[in-house]
Amino acid sequence: SGSAPGASLVFNNAGSIGQNDLTRVVTLPALTTTVTGLISTANMKVGARVTGTNVATGTTIASITDATTIVLSQATTNAASAANITLTFTSVDRALVLTGSNTDSNSIAGILSDRTVATFPTGVLSLSKTGVGTWALSGANTHTGNTTVTGGKLLVTNTTGSATGAGTVTVATTGTLGGTGSIAGATTISAGGTIAPGLSAGTLTIGSNTTIAGTYACELDGAANGDKIAVTGNLNLTGSTLAVSTLGGGASGDYVIATYTGSLTGTFAVSPALPSGYSVSYATAGQVKLISGGATDYDSWLNTFAPPITGADRLATADPDSDGLTNQQEYAFGLTPNSGSSVNPIAVQLNKATGKFSYTRRTLGLPSPALVYTVETSTTLTGWTVDVGATESVTGTVGQVQTVEVTLSATIPLSDPKLFVRVVAR
Fold it and tell me: How far is CA 190 from the centre of its chain?
């Protein structure tokens, strides 16, 4: 543990930090489970694996009688007393506990590894971060046990591999996970826990599904320099809170604060308030952004519907009501994204005698960037031609939806029995 104020405890080890074996030289009575005459049973544990001449495969320590005697889980195989037998005691699964109150970064640069013995399964090493202090892991660790953070801060600063080995990572109440390195296992930030990428503003990479039910402490430091969580897999934000703070460079422009390669579930609650003029956007697949200039019209539109549309259902390409229209199409044509019956923006069908029809659309001037609506016709459905001579006039507005009357140009063959007309928003 590290507790000295103003100082750091550093393990800089070119080898590995794992579990060591104990060896003892003994005389084994014939066919016995009781081993006496040990120089010490210190550091032995019930369940430790035992190997050696005349020791049956799979033998473990069943009990520790006293400072010189243990009981094995099965009898030795020697028919007569055997002297000078070396017994090896292989560690059982262990947990490395990092604790203390030193908030300067104590660090481990050596490799954390499981203990592997050819004749037995691996002895798994897990890691636990407790106490209010800070520890950093900079090695490409290979242990397969899980990592838990129940207090203080654990920083991952590795440049290769996984700082937390292959196991899962769980951050509990009062714990914080940060750094600019990489994590291989599934990661969960529980309610009351915090994820704070970077050592200042920076990117934390997670190679598996990630759930944030606690706080994402996101720092911004000038244009294009902000915290980011890069997830390979699914990102679940249900129950999460986004807490944005600015460093010396302030906030300028847009920021990608999270990426994911799988699905998105849930959205952030925000506390405290975002920097002035900023909003959170989920509209781009695979990204969560902080957008300057206030909420986009698209996001403001989505926010008007109940029950709330959240997570991946907010993407422009999503279809949360399964009606065959994407959110972008429903937004452009004044439809409802969470109602499967809201599918038709045609308010008045085409009158082939007059060449007129009407459709609904988002009120012009609201979308940013602006949407451009074009009228196209076809007689085959395989090729479409823009009717550059078509005219449009707004005949009514309800809320933020306009009704527009279109008059096709005189060049359109209204008498053709296979005339098709569509409106495209780009």
Answer: 12
Dig out the tokens for 191 from the structure: 């309610």
At 220, give phi and psi (nearest 5°): -120, 140
CA-based nearest residue to 362, from 329, 333, 335? 333
How many angstroms separate the CA atoms of 224 and 169, rounded? 29
User: What are the tokens at 58?
Assistant: 């799979």
What single letter denotes the amino acid at residue 197?
P
Q: 239 phi and psi, to 5 degrees?
A: 85, 5
Q: pLDDT tens-digit profile of 349-398?
A: 999 999 999 999 999 888 877 899 999 999 999 999 999 999 999 999 99
**How far is Cα 392 from Cα 408, in angstroms, rounded to an integer?**
9
Residues 6+ apart with CB under 8 A from 35: 26, 28, 69, 70, 71, 72, 87
Mean pLDDT of the chain: 90
Q: Which residues pair with 34 in a beta bridge?
A: 71
**Spatial contact of 140 and 13, defined as CB atoms under 8 Å apart:** no
Query: Which amino acid would we find at residue 376?
Result: E
